[in-house]
TrEMBL record:
<keyword id="KW-1003">Cell membrane</keyword>
<feature type="transmembrane region" description="Helical">
    <location>
        <begin position="325"/>
        <end position="345"/>
    </location>
</feature>
<keyword id="KW-1133">Transmembrane helix</keyword>
<dbReference type="InterPro" id="IPR005495">
    <property type="entry name" value="LptG/LptF_permease"/>
</dbReference>
<feature type="transmembrane region" description="Helical">
    <location>
        <begin position="97"/>
        <end position="114"/>
    </location>
</feature>
<feature type="transmembrane region" description="Helical">
    <location>
        <begin position="270"/>
        <end position="292"/>
    </location>
</feature>
<keyword id="KW-0812">Transmembrane</keyword>
<feature type="transmembrane region" description="Helical">
    <location>
        <begin position="59"/>
        <end position="76"/>
    </location>
</feature>
<protein>
    <submittedName>
        <fullName>Lipopolysaccharide export LptBFGC system, permease protein LptF</fullName>
    </submittedName>
</protein>
<keyword id="KW-0472">Membrane</keyword>
<dbReference type="GO" id="GO:0043190">
    <property type="term" value="C:ATP-binding cassette (ABC) transporter complex"/>
</dbReference>
<dbReference type="Pfam" id="PF03739">
    <property type="entry name" value="LptF_LptG"/>
</dbReference>
<feature type="transmembrane region" description="Helical">
    <location>
        <begin position="12"/>
        <end position="33"/>
    </location>
</feature>
<feature type="transmembrane region" description="Helical">
    <location>
        <begin position="299"/>
        <end position="319"/>
    </location>
</feature>
<dbReference type="GO" id="GO:0015920">
    <property type="term" value="P:lipopolysaccharide transport"/>
</dbReference>
Length: 353
């Protein structure tokens, strides 16, 4: 049986290696046509790099559909070549075959997760930077900053736990100043701060260091740090943090909730990304019973179900952002498709061939 499954896994892998690059090429080509139409700076080296950096995201969305097509082609191949008959005559039912084959989309879901967490964040950032260059636009300014260190001058550094750059206020600040030999002179910490002409800090402590043996600690309710900080210039020093991966979205949601910032967008996006990660396995299971039928109408049914899956997921994710349904409501679609697949899977028999 191991030889059989290795043979089938190899076939599925070959199908994916043909389908995914083909679809990716078409998707990139369509985007490049639109980009060239709008681009004000025709730098072909930058356009090539933009295409490369866009590939991980394209593959991320293409893989789930490609997995279904690969399963369909495998079934068509086994039926047309009559290879399915010796498999069935050796006591391997379609259900048993399916249970073993579902390992493959599970591995693909793992690849999806790796791509989303390790590759896409940096690739997405680089693609966005190149896009701004091609469109001759300035880079987007951040609206919020969190867990960020910023250099004010050669010897003064500021740390923000959370900083709303529109309101010019935030929570959790630390200011550290050093002498010419880079020995610490002073540290100010505060729970709340606001920046106008100077920095207003509330509920914190001031640590001054005159020598290693002479350290003074003073708590305060309100403190005015006299150095002027230009928030507009500060925006240029803070990198725009657009969360892409599940880990980044979770971190952004938790921090936003902690400091009273709207977190609906981050939570709904996180669950939507997670749904896309597991979609190769969900869709493979749901469509597996349909690929073994000779009915041509099943192809139409599969196409409709695929379109319905993606539009339903996107719709539920969008209304979750408005807090109409729980953030994890996007998984309702997965549950429905699992139940559909389970119902069809239990009815799957050799007679359907």
């Amino acid at each position: 049986m191991k030889i059989l499954y290795r043979y089938l896994y190899r076939k599925l892998a070959i199908y994916l290696l043909v389908i995914v690059p083909s679809f990716s090429f078409v998707a990139i080509l369509a985007e490049l046509v639109e980009l060239l139409r709008k681009a004000k700076n025709l730098d072909y080296a930058a356009i090539f790099l933009y295409s490369v950096y866009q590939l991980p995201e394209k593959i991320y969305y293409i893989l789930p559909v490609s997995m279904v097509i690969a399963f369909f082609l495998l079934a068509r191949d086994l039926i047309s070549s009559k290879e399915i008959y010796p498999i069935l005559l050796n006591g391997v039912s379609l259900r048993k075959l399916g249970i073993s084959l579902f390992i493959f989309p599970a591995v693909v879901s793992g690849i999806q997760l790796f791509n989303l967490e390790m590759v896409m964040p940096e690739a997405k950032k680089n693609a966005q930077d190149i896009y701004m260059v091609l469109k001759k636009r300035s880079k987007e300014e951040p609206l919020i900053a969190y867990n960020s260190w910023v250099t004010i001058d050669k010897r003064t550094f500021i740390y923000f736990s959370f900083f709303d750059l529109l309101k010019k206020e935030g929570r959790g600040i630390a200011i550290i100043r050093y002498d010419k030999k880079f020995n610490p002179l002073m540290k100010i910490e505060g729970n709340f701060f606001k920046i106008s002409d100077i920095v207003y800090i509330r509920n914190g402590k001031l640590v001054t260091i005159e020598s290693p043996t002479n350290i003074n600690l003073k708590k305060f309710k309100e403190y005015r740090y006299p150095q002027r900080i230009d928030v507009e210039s500060l925006k240029k020093l803070i990198k725009v943090k657009k969360p892409v991966s599940i880990r980044q979205l979770y971190k952004s949601a938790v921090i936003a909730e902690k400091f009273g910032y709207p977190s609906n967008y981050y939570w709904s996006k996180m669950y939507s990304k997670l749904a896309t990660v597991i979609s190769p396995l969900i869709l493979s299971f749901a469509f597996y019973p349909l690929i073994w039928s000779r009915k041509k109408s099943n192809i139409v049914i599969m196409a409709v179900l695929l379109v319905t899956y993606w539009y339903s997921t996107a719709f539920l994710s969008s209304i979750a952002q408005s807090n109409i349904i729980p953030y994890y409501g996007v998984f309702i679609v997965d549950v429905v498709y699992i139940l559909l697949g389970l119902f069809l899977f239990m009815r799957l028999k050799f007679s359907e061939l």
